[in-house]
Amino acid sequence: MKITFIGAGSLIFTRRLLVDLVRLPFPREGIEVALVDINERRLSYITRIAQRIFAENGIPIERITATTDRRAVLEGSQYVFISILVGDIEAIRKDIEIPLRYGVDQCIGDTIGPGGVFRALRTAPVILDICRDIAELCPEAFVFNYTNPMSILCWVVEEEYPSLRFYGLCHSVQHTAKQIAEYMGWPLEDLEYWVAGINHQAWFLELRLRGRDVYPLLREKAWDPEIAKKDTTRVEMLKYLGYFVTESSGHNSEYNPWFRKRPDLLQRFTPGGGWNGETGFILKLYGKDRESYEQELERVASGTEPISYEESEEYGMKIIYALEGGGIFRANINLPNRGTITNLPPQCIVEVPCFVEKGRIRPAFVGDLPLQLAALNRMVVQSQEMAVHGILEKRRDYIYYALYYDPLTAAVLSLDEIKKMVDDMFEAEREYLPNEWYHS
Amino acid sequence: MPKIVIIGAGSVVFAQKLIVDIMTFPSLRNSTLALVDIDEERLGIIARLTEKLKKQECFPISIEAATDRRKVLKDADYVINMIQVGGLEAYRLDVEIPRKYGIDQTVGDTLGPGGVFRALRTVPVLLEICRDMEDLCPNALLINYTNPMAILCWAINKATHIKSVGLCHSVQGTARQLAEYIGVKVADTMKYETEEHAFFYKPMPADIDYWVAGINHQAWFLQFRYRGEDAYPLLRKAMEDPHIYSQDIVRFEIMRHFGYFVTESSHHMSEYVPYFRKNPDLVTKYIPRRWDYYEICRAGLAPYLEKIQRQIRGEEPIEIRRSLEYGAYIINAMETGEVTRINGNVANTGLITNLPYGCCVEVPCFVDRLGIHPCFVGDLPPQLAAINRTNINVQELAVEGILQQRKEYIYEAIALDPLTSAILTLDEIRSMVDEMFEAEREYLPEGWKFLV
């Protein structure tokens, strides 16, 4: 069983998955891991950490390959994880600051809106290159994408490489379940949930505690000011739309027109800042103190600090375990909507419960979402659709359209203002984008 | 500790099988089992047998028995239905009257005149059970084992608010037969008293994988794999072996001409299509060994009942062995979260896109603590959907005829039955249906008597 990590230098993420790998009862003798990153410094850290994890768990460290050239290791891979970042913090700064000058105030801005669309413009070409190599070297592999913007990237791949087994994974569903359990004082292991929608905007459709429907209790809790203070916009939507949504309140506030369009609303709906909706919070996330971070990595890699073997929230390794025949596992997975959610467009990327069994991922049938939820999903999906076609056909007009229809941008700007903002972003991000965008 | 109500538990052989299945799951051994049958004597037998099982194995189950289901339905979590309405006598009429007209049914409980009349008798009773459930245990899952499966489930979905799934063993049973045909065997030292016993208890090879969808008794092996590889080539090769071919002629012929293997036996399958039973020569050719289910039922339960009596007296142990039936697996999955995949009969809410919306389809479903989750199947290959639709036509008219008490639909249902329509003219069909209505008068609800 060969697992390849592309973008393995996403250190925390790769480390978590490797810990899950050694925690699960996989037959030890079959495990082989390839680590790929174009950043050699990052690659060397994660390689040392991986070697340490293997050594501490009785797996020969020769089973780890590290390379900056993915083509050298893709062949023979049964599983491929992709978690890459294209462009640096300066690109992200432009994603946030240019729109902000126009009054479009984003918190994370990596999956939707001007920031999300431009991140897609930077990232999709690289993802497609990786997919071309996968299609050539390991076409049967299960590919798990953890890179954002999730839906747009999965959709682009579906259009270009429909035969790949390409799935998008996120932890927002599990993480939200944990938060709900905490808010309500419920033991997480007794909580059962059924969640469907699109990535970062999936809906808790059912919530049961030991078999009992506990949604009414959660709806009551929405009026508790303590909860409303730390998870403001999700609680607000729970009050008015009736359902709890995945993703943090801050990120969620970018996915609709209601919370960020005026300074007074921003103040009211993002108390406490940070993940609850701070302006440009992503810059803080990426701009962490580099030096102390490297020191910490060095301590983990060199063995002076113990590795935490706590199970992660990530689905990735559990899915692989089920695919290898370790029993049926249910996970929320992003994939094309082939009849699964009947009131979302047939070609969009949905995040739905899937049952993973030996060698197969089987999406469950969801049917119609409640009308008000499908409507909000569709607002986001139509913007994604135009971004996808803009990217595939290199058409700038589609990129304008994608943002004309973005719920937050549209609530703040006029059409000509949006066009001007997009032009400014194209100009400022020239060095990160393929040349074809600048021919016309 | 779930409460499981078994309605029609006086079907002692089947009830015993399911009760033992339930008890093979440690998680379910503290269940409450409530046994219901309107036949007091039969109810007594299954109740004593269950008591004996409890004693023999020291299981902490609670056992209740009632002839009035309303006494035990309150707060039930699962209701398993296995009733037979009208008994052997009505069944005799279902088979014998059509036979006079040249319609030779081998089972006659699913489609055709026999199936439709069984539905006429059964739907009203089943809907009353559902009304009681809506009143006393509205959130319970109804697990239906009674035939005609598709018509009954369709009527439940259309006319009640009860969550239900219809179960059959033809999918998993056929999968194991197919494994045998292609020569995949499992080491098994068990001795089987009868062919039927072997069918229910022989182990399933672990490296067989299948994806089956369609309608009950006519679902299709869309994928059949051995060790991850498509096993259809092996199956087509197996068909060349006369010994194997002769065991399942009708289904191999269906595979030869339509490309896919179908669930349900060759006997049963031959009733659902026009090709195999329209004259005695064809029957001899395609179904050389007769297997008439009514005759088998008439031969009687005596040997089974004697065995059960010996078990009750403690002269023979009750064997604790799990059968291939899905029922207990479902309850275990919903109680423990140990996910299982079954084929279940559910409403077609967009699952099979080229069968009518709302009809009853048999599709792969996953079961976990939240319940039954059917899978999206998409389009069936067009030739398979076409055969299914000929059966669905009959089912739909039967369902509507029964729910609206509209007798014309019943004539039309049977006039559109593929086998009947291959043999009779429209006026002959009308006479046959009239004769059946007349003969079965006493088994039908008041409304139909008025219409007759």
Automatic annotation (TrEMBL), chain B:
Outline the extent of the Glycosyl hydrolase family 4 C-terminal domain. Answer: 212-420
* Domain of life, source organism: Bacteria
Q: Would I find Heme among this entry's keywords?
A: no
Q: Which residues bind substrate?
A: 147
Q: List, in alphabetical order, the Gene Ontology terms for molecular function in this entry.
A: hydrolase activity, hydrolyzing O-glycosyl compounds; metal ion binding; oxidoreductase activity, acting on the CH-OH group of donors, NAD or NADP as acceptor
Q: Which InterPro entries match?
A: GH4_Enzyme_sf, Glyco_hydro_4, Glyco_hydro_4_C, Lactate_DH/Glyco_Ohase_4_C, NAD(P)-bd_dom_sf
Site described as Increases basicity of active site Tyr, positions? 109
Cofactor binding remark: Binds 1 NAD(+) per subunit.
Q: Does the keyword Hydrolase apply?
A: yes
Annotated residues for binding of Mn(2+): 168, 217
Q: An example of a Gene Ontology BP annotation on this entry?
A: carbohydrate metabolic process
What protein family does this chain belong to? Answer: Belongs to the glycosyl hydrolase 4 family.
Under what name is this protein listed? Alpha-glucosidase/alpha-galactosidase
